[in-house]
Write a structure and sequence with these properties.
mainly alpha, 2 strands
Length: 101
Amino acid sequence: MKQAVSLITGFSADYVIADRAYDADSLMDAILEAGGEPVIPPRRHRKHQHPYDKELYKERNQVERLFAKLKEFRRIATRYDKLLANFLGFVKLAAVILWLK
């Protein structure tokens, strides 16, 4: 969480979707300043439970599942390829294989 604000600095997005662990005022402010809308559920201990788009947050699960399926390919999970072009090529190939299933 400490590096989240510095990671998104310089990027712009309509929505930033993250899990509860990223519910911090500093990150929310940085997203709003960049012109985006944070889709982050509030932590349970917050006094003010801010609203978020629950339907959009559900789509995050699909992305998480895709990463889990991609990591089933040993070559992707262990990052055997040292060159980005080779690694990205195999990620694309694995995505096509998953899509054809």
